[in-house]
Amino acid sequence: MTRRISIRFCIGEGAETITAEGRVAWALLQLIVADERGCTPIDNPAPRWSAYVFKLRRLGVSVETIHEPHGGPFSGTHARYVLRSTINVLEPAHG
Fold first, then answer.
1. Other C-beta atoms lying within 10 Å of the C-beta of residue 76
2. β-strand 63-70 against 87-94: which pairing, if any?
3. Per the domain annotation, does 1 fall within a domain?
4. pLDDT reported for residue 92
5. Please, what is the Cα angle at 63 between 10 and 90, to 5 degrees?
6. In 3-state terms, what secondary structure has residue 86?
7. For the chain, which terminus, N or C, has the lower number of CB atoms within 10 Å?
8. Residues 6+ apart with CB under 8 A from 4
9. Contact 28/38 with Cβ under 8 angstroms?
10. pLDDT class of 95 with cuts at 50, 70, 90
11. Inside any domain, residue 62
């Protein structure tokens, strides 16, 4: 059985401790690793990136959404999410 991922962090220095779990914790870790290049659902496949970002924003995390065009038979735009908050990981992800 797989355990649920959890990460404890704070935004900036000396802020309150926040816990993210499950896919929201996974998304935060992806954003931290991606740094300025950000994450897209194309490069970092997950079923509901917009929902994970929405939940991170509700926790107080600043995430910028950049809309990028793409071609192909289903041309349009996709989102690139870039972490703008300084995240201090207090307890590494486990699960």
1. 10
2. unpaired
3. no
4. 75
5. 20
6. coil
7. N
8. 21, 22, 95
9. no
10. low
11. yes
